[in-house]
Amino acid sequence: MIHRILVPLDGSVRAEAVLPHVMTVASVFDSRIDLLNVLPAAAVGDRHQPSDPMPCRLARANRARYLEGRAEALRGFGLDVETKIVEGGPAEVIVDLADRGHYDLVALTPHGVGSRTQLAIGCTAVAVILNVRCSILLVAGYTPESEEAKTIPITYRGVLSPVDCSPRSDWSLKVASELALGSGARLKVIHVLDSPEVVSRMPRPGATRRLVDGIMRANRTEADEYLRSATRPLREAGVSIETEILSGSPGGPAEAVRKRAEGEDLVVLSAHGRGGAPAWPLGGTAMKLLLGVDRPILVLQDLTAARTAWPQTASESNRIRAHDPSLAGPSRAMR
User: Fold this and answer.
1) Predicted model pTM
2) Given 9, 59, 96, 137, which is the most exposed site by the fewest CB atoms within 10 A?
3) Range of the domain at 272
4) What is the per-residue pLDDT for 231?
């Protein structure tokens, strides 16, 4: 499911805040972690002047020592960790590696060593979010209490999973439930009941109001049934779950989710909703939450409905397991 995780580190405390979350995710899904440091062009010379080999070697040696120190701390928890040092621009290197390296997840923080704290998110993080084609874990609003805390898996107490009753929701809910069960967290599954848009400059006539009210009642009934059916196998697997249907806010679903995310340790959702176009890396709600939520957020890129649906029969389960064992029903954490 999440087999390989790319973690860019630049040596700053800000960037290392992602490590406890990566350790938890990797522990749940038995993922391999690749710690990456990008050696800027300034450290290896530029196109106008040949680089001095001695400073280049010293810089590479220092960064290798730094990465290996972090990797050893993570390996102490039984995790599979490798290190990489690549020369170039940070955003370009991260996106290129994610595209070519078959990574399932890129995990990073909004700011690194060179970002200004008054900005909501730094340039490198924005460039990665807008261009990478795999899932994204963005860790904001978290500061390790000590040096040791940076390399200890975080324990989630509450995981929030916004769903829109689509097959994409099945995928994100499955990942969220495994993370919740793996860390003993309570899983809160919510659906935002947004009012249908009616184009009119005048107050709605009675017939239009009745039509909108009828659609809202039908949508609430469908959402309620989806939440019951989708969470039933998770409850049976031992996941502690709460469900809630929220009324839409003037800011749309993203604003409703943002308000509900306060106090949660992690938000997990799909990159696109029911009407999202996969041609775009992210849907509107996912993008707004990545840029506007101060909680750690995991945005999962789409899988096809055939690969994300829970198997309903033994034959379906065997067929899916033969294709990809990680997609066949509850994981080892749930069994």
Assistant:
1) 0.82
2) 96
3) 156-335
4) 95
